[in-house]
Design a protein that fits this description.
Number of strands: 4
Strand order of the largest sheet: 2-1-3-4
EC number: 2.5.1.18, 5.2.1.2
Distance between the termini: 26 Å
Order of helices and strands: EHEHEEHHHHHHH
Helix content: 40-55%
CATH architecture of the largest domain: Up-down Bundle
Structural class: alpha+beta
GO cellular component, one term: mitochondrion
GO biological process, one term: glutathione metabolic process
Oligomer: single chain
Main location: cytoplasm
CATH class of the largest domain: Mainly Alpha
Cofactor: glutathione
Radius of gyration: 16 Å
C-alpha cells in the first residue's frame, strides 16, 4: 500500500492510526499542503484524487480517498482488531461520533476554509471546534467507557485524537471538556497513536519533531 499523507493533516492521521492498529505496513508519500502553493493541486496528484485532498491510499489495485471510506475498507479486508463493534447500537454510536467530527467539526476549520476566512481564522476555528466539542462532550458522557464507545478502541477514537490536536493548535480551552480530555489522554498512550503522531512522520519539519 502507498499512503499519500501530510504530517499535520488530521484526516491523514486517522488513516495512519488505522494502518498501525491493523499492522499493515505501507510506503508513505508526503504531499505538502502549504509548499509550492499546495502540492495537492498538482496535475499528478489530481489524477490520484480529483478532490485534491489528503489522504489517498493505493491498495489492492485501487485508489481510495476520504478517510472514513479508507478506514471502512481496511476494516472489511483486515477485520482484526475490529474498529466497529459487533453490537448494532454501539456500532451506530461509533459512526455517529465519527460523523460528528469528520462532517460537523473538521471541515469547518480546515485549511481551505480558513484561507477564505482571512484575518479572523483563529477565532473562526475556535468557534467551530468549541460548538462541536460542547455537543461531543455531552454525547460521550452517555457512550464512553475507557474510550469513546465502551472500552475498545473504535473508529470514533481514530477521529477524536486528531481533532483534539487541532483544538490545541487553535488554542481552544479544553477545560470544559473533561471526558474528551480523559479519552484523548488514554488513547495517546497506545503505540498505534504514538507512531502515527504528526510529530513522528517522515515529512515532519525538524522543529516540530518529537
Amino acid at each position: 500500500p502507498i499512503l499519500y499523507s501530510y504530517f499535520r493533516s488530521s484526516c491523514s492521521w486517522r488513516v495512519r492510526i488505522a494502518l498501525a492498529l491493523k499492522g499493515i505496513s505501507y510506503d508513505l508519500v508526503p504531499v505538502n499542503l502549504i509548499k509550492d502553493g499546495g502540492q495537492q493541486f498538482s496535475a499528478e496528484f489530481k489524477a490520484l484524487n480529483p478532490m485534491q485532498q489528503v489522504p489517498a491510499l493505493k491498495i489492492d489495485g485501487i485508489i481510495l480517498s476520504q478517510s472514513l471510506a479508507i478506514i471502512n475498507y481496511l476494516e472489511e479486508t483486515h477485520p482484526n482488531p475490529r474498529l466497529l463493534p459487533q453490537d448494532p447500537k454501539k456500532r451506530a454510536q461509533v459512526r455517529m461520533i465519527a460523523d460528528h467530527i469528520v462532517s460537523g467539526i473538521q471541515p469547518l476549520q480546515n485549511l481551505g476554509v480558513l484561507k477564505q476566512i482571512g484575518e479572523k481564522k483563529m477565532e473562526w476555528a475556535q468557534n467551530c471546534i468549541t460548538s462541536g466539542f460542547q455537543a461531543l462532550e455531552q454525547i460521550l458522557q452517555h457512550t464512553a467507557g475507557r474510550y469513546c464507545v465502551g472500552d475498545e478502541v473504535s473508529m470514533a477514537d481514530l477521529c477524536l485524537v486528531p481533532q483534539v490536536a487541532n483544538a490545541e493548535r487553535f488554542k481552544v480551552d479544553m477545560g470544559p471538556y473533561p471526558t474528551i480530555t480523559r479519552i484523548n489522554k488514554a488513547l495517546l498512550e497506545l503505540e498505534a497513536f504514538k507512531i502515527s503522531h504528526p510529530s513522528r512522520q517522515p515529512d515532519t519539519p525538524a522543529e516540530l519533531r518529537a
